[in-house]
Amino acid sequence: MDRRAFLELLAATPLAARVGAQTEHPRYRVVSAYAATAVPGMPGPWPGRVVSVKSQHSLDASSRVVDAVVREMMDRGLRALTGEATTSGAWRRLFEPGDVVGIKVNAGGVPYVVSSPAIVAETCRQLMAVGIPATSLFVFERFQNQIVAIDYVPHLPEGVTVFAAEKGNRRQENGAYDPETYVEVEFFDEDDTRSNMMKLVTRKLTKIVNIPNMKDHGATGVTGCLKNVAYGCFSNVARSHSHGQTHTLTAVGTFASVEPLRSRTVLQIMDGLHAVWHGGPFAHTDRYVFHPRQILFGTDPVAIDRLLLDIIDDKRKAEGAISIWNRSPETLQFKNQRARDDDPNVNILIREPGHVEYAGRLGLGIADLAKIRVEDIEL
């Protein structure tokens, strides 16, 4: 999609009207010197295709991850996605020995719902089997305090780097971000209107594996593949949802579309071993944690996130909670996070699950359920 078409799409309003969102979108100015690859990593070679692998044996009686079962789930999922007969052949469809690979984890749901060390470690092992040295692998997240709490290092092959861009959402810490690759946008008359992409993404990595979780989110409805790379690779993004309002409908897809992030994110592995159905993206209590025992594989983040919308919404309905699509003002208690955490029928913002369809309109993937092909595998 050329820049003119991209900006015209951002200015369109029919989708916002359909989902009841704000009818005026922010004006985005994208600055990047990077061009898209011939086949951008999002949606990649298999748009609209998702492989779902489930195993009731993936967690033990105490809900701890069983590493050996996860390895089998990973093998089956990648072989099914790529059509390759061997696991090594499957990984070689997307990666080659000269790659420098980032593994974008999600650490926000510490301690209960984070990108599983078992999935992250197996990803590293398989990339090394392709011929990529451990020193060319980077497990990364925005916030150091979150990723340190998980303690990935003992699980990873020696030589893999664990990287965080900031100590803990401190706007003055800009050294890890690229001053030449950014999105300029004013959401709510804030002083700092620029969000910069990580230097790790722009200047170091050639490929990214995205490993999000299945989580509810108070602004976007859910937080999955799209938000994990979009908000997880840029600075100063929380400003898109504050003051009792949210612009996440357009922001998530817009940030995910920026090069080189879009082209370099070539594989989506959604960790659904544990999940959060309310109060996300955090999981400070296990009250809203559930266990789908599932991993989703694809190259299309929109298709996977479209499935996630139903997974979270169906669980909320089963628990007697309001839908993520509920837009009633009666549910709102602006800025009252304690009330939201205590009651799954309280919202702190009007959620914008329409961000998934919007991202599809930007060319990042397939949002139409009728066009999404899911292969189910049960172990």
Topology:
Layout: H1 3-11, H2 14-19, E1 29-31, E2 49-54, H3 67-82, H4 87-92, E3 101-104, H5 117-130, E4 137-143, H6 144-150, E5 161-166, E6 177-184, E7 194-198, H7 199-204, E8 207-210, E9 213-217, E10 221-223, H8 225-230, E11 241-242, E12 245-246, H9 248-256, H10 261-264, E13 265-276, E14 289-290, E15 294-298, H11 301-318, H12 337-342, H13 355-361, E16 373-378
Helix pairs in contact: 3-5, 9-13, 11-13
What does the model show?
The chain has 379 residues and is an alpha/beta fold. The protein has a single domain (26-378), classed as LarA, N-terminal domain (Rossmann fold, 3-Layer(aba) Sandwich). Helices cover 30% and strands 21% of the residues. It contains 13 helices and 16 strands. The strands form 3 sheets. Strands 2, 3, 4, 5, 8, 9, 10, 13, 14, 15 and 16 form an 11-stranded mixed sheet that branches. α6 links the parallel β4 and β5 (161-166). α11 (301-318) packs antiparallel against α13 (355-361). The radius of gyration is 19 Å and the shape is globular. The model is unreliable at 1-22 (pLDDT under 50).
Structure at a glance:
The chain is α/β, with parallel strands linked by helices and 379 residues long. The protein has helices at residues 3-11, 14-19, 67-82, 87-92, 117-130, 144-150, 199-204, 225-230, 248-256, 261-264, 301-318, 337-342, 355-361; strands at 29-31, 49-54, 101-104, 137-143, 161-166, 177-184, 194-198, 207-210, 213-217, 221-223, 241-242, 245-246, 265-276, 289-290, 294-298, 373-378. The protein is 30% helix and 21% strand.
